[in-house]
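Checklist before submission:
- one chain only
- standard amino acids only
- sequence pasted in full

Submission:
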Amino acid sequence: MCRLFGMHAGHAAVRATFWLLTAPDSLEVQSRREPDGTGIGTFTADGQPRVDKQPVAAWEDRAFAREARHVESTTFLAHVRYASLGAHTYVNTHPFEQDARLFAHNGAFSEVQTLDGQLRELGASGLVQGQTDSERMFALITAETRRAGGDVGAGIAAALTWIAENLPVLSLNCIITTATDLWAVRYPDTHELHMLENISDAPDVGRHLNARSPRISAHGKDVGDHVLVATEPMADDPRWEMMEPGTLLHVGSDLTTTRTFPFPDHPRRRLTLNDLDPAAAASQREGKA
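Returned file contents:
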């Protein structure tokens, strides 16, 4: 299953050290467990998006996945891809960038040709460079955000509601970041998504970041206040909480969190793993390490 990780560190840029992909134990295990792409999305000091990603497979360059990635940003977005649609190429690897926003998705939906028609109607077909359902979903969010005058939350709500009402859906879990904001969605309840608010009432108190899962790790000293969102709890911290199904989470530049529930209770047509082809189903299993 794809892995998501998002972090908001507030107004000040912080340095975190990332490892994408914990090194497997053997070549035999690697051949069965390597992902189809890894990437980190951050923002420069002047707010420009910066994406460092590569399609990594068991027979390709392992150095990218093993080396520590030292980056500095106010927000971070990391993703490990297990492909359900689209070749193992750079353009199909998360995060995606549109309108100076970054996006990563964990899930799947079908009948993408219907979504292609909606994107043509909205004049947004040119936003899609690859073959994935994820990039198409992001393009719809971008188109709806433009129609909402730049209101990202309204764009997410409109886009995902349209998908839920018109397409068969397994999961639309996703994270979107800018230099100042983070949005995260858990919808419906197929896959988990968790968050941790590491906020202290004491000013200028340094804190360590130590977030580790089977596939994404992030570490940093004196990171300060921060909010994390991830596919699974990272590190043994009781403050991790699972987001409720249907949640649209917004984290602002001051780390204020807002939760709304703008989506239908359930997708009109809900997919199960049995509805997917074997490769797509394998990419979506919770236990895929």
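Reviewer check: Residues 133-147 form the longest helix (15 residues).
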